[in-house]
Request: fold
Amino acid sequence: MGLFADIYGENTLQKSRIAVISDHLLGTLVDAVNRVDTEVKLIGLTSTQEKEGVTTVTHLIANALCTSTYFRSLVVDAGLHNPAMHRVENIPEAPGLSDVILSKELRWKEAIKSKKEPVCYVLPAGKSVESLVDFFMHPRVYDFLKDLRSAFNFVLFDLPPVGTYPEILPFISELDAVLFVVRAHYTRVRAAQVAVDRLKRGGVLILGGILNRKRYYIPETLYKMF
Ligand SMILES: Nc1ncnc2c1ncn2[C@@H]1O[C@H](COP(=O)(O)OP(=O)(O)OP(=O)(O)O)[C@@H](O)[C@H]1O
Ligand SMILES: [Mg+2]
Reply:
């Protein structure tokens, strides 16, 4: 797995740098997708353990996609272990993904929220679910993925960390590719390797790793001088 991008950050992301980071992430993503022989539309973001920055990175890429007029995109909050995309996007948590899958009546088109019509949308997590494994194995999930594939150029899935929730692997295997987020100075290399090996054994295409919350070792002002 190659390094896809790294993102500096201590406690909060600097607002002034968000657009630059987002554009860089999207550029690298499109580049990586173009280098792959297979079609890559459904992309999951996951990690080894919780709080590595999966929701943050998903949101950054989604923002860049919204500025593009080429791509029709959707972000799905599949982080049902701890839904957070609705907070970042400032939208209601439900109805959302779980309601679309578990209720026969609600269609996904009615549950998605527009970020920028008609190019980018968000599907929040929906009502909480009792069991992640039951949810992700639900037969309606697969028809839903098929629908999304024909409706969008890119669908980003904010996923639970596969290291902590290996039961989501069968679902991840249905996606086209994964970006693997690693929080610097937080997750042990060995633990990340185990999670990545698990994905590879599941036949998952890993587009690359994103090293998040890297620290500056020389004062930030010096970085800015060059
Ligand atoms: N590059 C960064 N710089 C500064 N703060 C960051 C950065 N990335 C993430 N954070 C902060 O770290 C916290 C955890 O990030 P986030 O919610 O994106 O992680 P997550 O992997 O989705 O967590 P969870 O396991 O709860 O789903 C948040 O408060 C977020 O604002
Ligand atoms: Mg999250």
